């Protein structure tokens, strides 16, 4: 078994945890929080009768990572250490796994499901656990699954239950919660402490040693001037103006500047208004304007050709014209397509940020790197999966970067769809990066925290507007000696302003934590209890409002409409909730309203169902969701409510998620479904 030794600053931060107190360990990325947690778990298992440790993570890949790299090597010989995720078979009898193991590493969702599940093989009580370790615990807020778990804890604690687990939280960056004053930042830190029922600890006596072991990278602002001319962007704006004039924007509505996030928010509201008012002209024009605005945002960050292709792909995917609005919008693009393409190919007007990004990468990977005989590794962070794919294509086709020896690959989150990666693809990419076959990861925020990525010489943030937590996490990846953290941005741009603000907020976080740590114990506990009581009352009020909203309309009084063509396609009473996750239409007549598309491929398998084909509106081709083959026998349409509208007795409305619909959805009964549809079998 690997020897478990701590640095003095790690020993300092675990002192109170070793005495059985609930604590949050605050230490920078690379400081060894997980190692400190392993040490606490080991001592807890050695000294606590009938000890049971559960380690919670918020991403599936962290389950195996923490198991293989930290907990199993140090505890596996003496204790039963098990890793369980939604992708492993053990999830189906999770309660038994917890009962028969000493230490379980799992996703927070899995534990929460077990807390509310009544089946004996799957159920877990908080009282079964003696130590609960929560990784990246700054996510314990609002409706996060971490907070759902801790809500169960806090409510039991306030009722006076004594048999509750000790809590150990781990974070590099609690943040300020959007607060920009010391008082609001202190309130945020106290709220995190209340949610976790824990004090927050950090090293006081070994700060210099910690800084020496976890050096901060050299930060550079690689700034470019605004491009002097942008005929491609100007042409897009002219086309948008033509759409504005065609659509008759309501006089009480004012659109903000094209090519901004604010404009995007405005056209989203316009589309919703169009659907509510049965004004398809307004809704469709707003939808297309959002795509033009996306192209402007891409043009500002990436190549002009990337922006052009995003529009081209959108119009290539449109297959059916319903009315004159569709003919106008598609005709406008087709009439201007050739000119846009020519402008996008004109290198005189290319985005200067790309040239600056190239020089930043060459400086690290080029001659200087070779002179110093340094094997460089870097991460290039960008906002979206789309931008990551475009940047990767650019890097791989750039001769200068190829000559500098850059071998790049994409790293994005696991999920469903073409632009997502599977868990295995993620793991393989990181393995190749560690082995040196790759030396540049082009990544979304997925690489900011959690993933076991080797220390880098260079971290570049490109086209990003994020909070101070994400900035600190990304900066923590540049841990190699003499590493660099680069912000490539336009002079006076929003990225620079946000980065400067984040620097201030990072400093403010430290001051807020210091203030909380200075509070007298009695004062701190009193404040924590007040916040916990307020949260419980707030949740009960919110639940009451939610129930009241759900009972506002009988399901039979609500119709579902296609969000594109606005045709009525189903009654809300036909919708049932399957396995507390999927909203399916059980009326066999519903199939007259849709047609099948391509086969859905998911990166994992499920116990009782498998995906079928996508389903699309038979009238306009709007995507509605996909089929589910349930228990190997019945095909059920699984609907995405964001692609539908609701006609209620109180008017038409749209919602993003099923939880926001104004009617009650009953649970799906397989037995009732079979009796209704296959009576001859009974």
Q: Note the gap between the termini.
A: 59 Å
User: At the fourth CATH level, what is the homologous superfamily of the largest domain?
Assistant: P-loop containing nucleotide triphosphate hydrolases
How would the global form be characterised?
Answer: globular
The biggest sheet, with number of strands, parallel, antiparallel or mixed sense and barrel status, is: 7 strands, parallel
Task: Give the C-level CATH assignment of the largest domain.
Answer: Alpha Beta
Structural class: alpha/beta
Count up the domains.
4
The count of β-strands is 24
**CATH-defined fold name of the largest domain:** Rossmann fold
Taking strands numbered 1, 2, ... along the chain, how are they ordered across the largest sheet? 3-4-2-5-6-1-7
Mean pLDDT: 92
Uncertain regions: pLDDT < 50 for 5+ in a row? none
Instruction: Kindly state the percentage of residues in helix.
Output: 40-55%
Name the beta content range.
15-25%
Provide a count of the helices.
22
Cα Rg: 27 Å
* CATH architectural designation of the largest domain: 3-Layer(aba) Sandwich
Helix-strand blueprint:
Layout: H1 8-18, E1 23-26, H2 33-47, E2 53-57, H3 60-75, E3 81-84, H4 94-100, E4 103-107, H5 108-116, E5 131-134, H6 145-158, E6 166-171, H7 182-196, E7 199-201, H8 207-213, E8 218-224, H9 231-247, H10 261-276, H11 280-301, H12 304-317, H13 324-344, H14 352-365, H15 367-371, E9 378-381, H16 385-396, H17 399-403, E10 408-411, H18 423-435, E11 440-443, E12 458-462, H19 468-475, E13 484-490, H20 494-518, H21 521-550, E14 559-562, E15 568-571, E16 575-578, E17 582-585, E18 594-599, E19 609-617, E20 623-630, E21 634-639, E22 644-648, E23 651-653, E24 666-667, H22 670-677
Parallel strand pairs: 1-6, 1-7, 2-4, 2-5, 3-4, 5-6, 8-13, 9-11, 9-12, 10-11, 12-13, 16-24
Antiparallel strand pairs: 14-15, 14-22, 16-17, 18-19, 19-20, 20-21, 22-23
Helix pairs in contact: 1-2, 2-3, 5-6, 6-21, 7-20, 7-21, 9-11, 9-13, 10-11, 11-12, 12-13, 19-20
């Amino acid at each position: 078994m690997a020897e478990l030794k701590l640095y003095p600053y790690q020993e300092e931060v675990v002192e109170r945890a070793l005495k059985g107190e609930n604590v949050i360990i605050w230490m920078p990325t690379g400081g060894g929080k997980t190692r400190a947690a392993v040490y606490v778990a080991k001592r807890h298992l050695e000294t606590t009768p009938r000890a049971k440790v559960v380690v919670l993570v918020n991403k599936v890949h962290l389950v195996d990572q923490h198991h293989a790299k930290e907990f199993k090597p140090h505890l596996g010989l003496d204790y039963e250490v098990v890793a369980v995720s939604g992708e492993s078979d053990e999830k189906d009898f999770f309660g038994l796994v917890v009962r028969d193991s000493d230490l379980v590493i799992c996703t927070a969702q899995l534990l929460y499901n077990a807390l509310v599940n009544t089946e004996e093989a799957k159920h877990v009580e908080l009282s079964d656990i003696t130590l609960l370790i929560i990784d990246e615990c700054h996510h314990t807020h609002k409706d996060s699954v971490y907070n759902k778990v801790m809500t169960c804890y806090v409510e039991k604690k306030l009722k006076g239950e004594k048999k509750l687990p000790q809590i150990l939280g781990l974070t590099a960056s609690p943040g300020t919660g959007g607060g920009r004053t010391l008082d609001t930042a202190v309130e945020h830190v106290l709220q995190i402490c209340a949610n976790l029922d824990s004090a927050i600890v950090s090293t006081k006596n070994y700060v210099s040693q910690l800084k020496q072991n976890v050096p901060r990278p050299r930060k550079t602002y690689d700034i470019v001037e605004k491009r002097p001319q942008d005929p491609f962007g100007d042409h897009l704006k002219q086309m948008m103006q033509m759409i504005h004039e065609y659509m008759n924007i309501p006089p009480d509505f004012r659109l903000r500047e094209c090519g901004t996030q604010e404009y995007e928010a405005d056209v989203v509201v316009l589309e919703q208004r169009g659907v509510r008012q049965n004004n398809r002209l307004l809704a469709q024009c707003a939808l297309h304007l959002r795509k033009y605005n996306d192209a402007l945002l891409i043009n500002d960050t990436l190549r002009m050709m990337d922006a052009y292709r995003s529009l081209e792909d959108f119009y290539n995917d449109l297959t059916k014209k319903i009315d004159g609005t569709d003919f106008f919008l598609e005709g406008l693009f087709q009439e201007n397509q050739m000119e846009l393409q020519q402008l996008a190919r004109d290198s005189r007007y290319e985005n200067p940020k790309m040239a600056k990004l190239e020089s930043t990468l060459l400086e690290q990977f080029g001659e200087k790197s070779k002179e110093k005989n340094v094997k460089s590794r870097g991460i290039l962070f960008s906002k979206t999966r789309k931008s990551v794919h475009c940047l990767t294509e650019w890097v791989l086709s750039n001769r200068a970067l190829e000559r500098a020896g850059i071998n790049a690959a994409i790293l994005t989150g696991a999920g469903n769809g073409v632009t997502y990666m599977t868990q295995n693809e993620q793991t393989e990419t990181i393995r190749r990066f560690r082995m040196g076959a790759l030396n540049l990861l082009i990544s979304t925020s997925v690489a900011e925290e959690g993933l076991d990525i080797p220390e880098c010489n260079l971290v570049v943030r490109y086209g990003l507007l994020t909070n101070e937590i994400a900035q600190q996490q990304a900066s923590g990846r540049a841990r190699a000696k003499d590493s660099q953290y680069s912000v490539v941005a336009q002079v006076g741009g929003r990225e620079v302003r946000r980065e400067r603000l984040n620097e201030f907020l990072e400093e403010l976080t430290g001051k807020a934590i210091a203030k909380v740590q200075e509070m007298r114990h009695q004062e701190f506990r009193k404040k924590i209890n007040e916040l916990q009581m307020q949260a419980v009352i707030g949740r009960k009020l919110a639940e009451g409002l939610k129930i009241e909203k759900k009972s506002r309309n009988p399901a039979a009084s609500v119709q579902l409409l296609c969000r594109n063509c606005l045709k009525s396609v189903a009654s809300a009473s036909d919708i049932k909730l399957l396995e507390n996750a999927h909203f399916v239409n059980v009326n066999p007549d519903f199939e007259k309203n849709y047609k099948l598309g391509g086969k859905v491929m998911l990166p994992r398998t499920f116990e009782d169902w498998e995906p079928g084909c996508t389903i699309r509106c038979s009238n306009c081709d709007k995507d509605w969701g996909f089929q589910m083959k349930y228990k190997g026998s019945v095909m059920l349409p699984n609907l995405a409510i964001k692609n539908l509208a609701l006609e209620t007795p109180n008017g038409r409305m749209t919602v993003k998620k099923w939880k926001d619909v104004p009617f009650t959805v009953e649970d799906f009964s397989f037995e009732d479904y079979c009796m209704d549809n296959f009576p001859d079998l009974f």
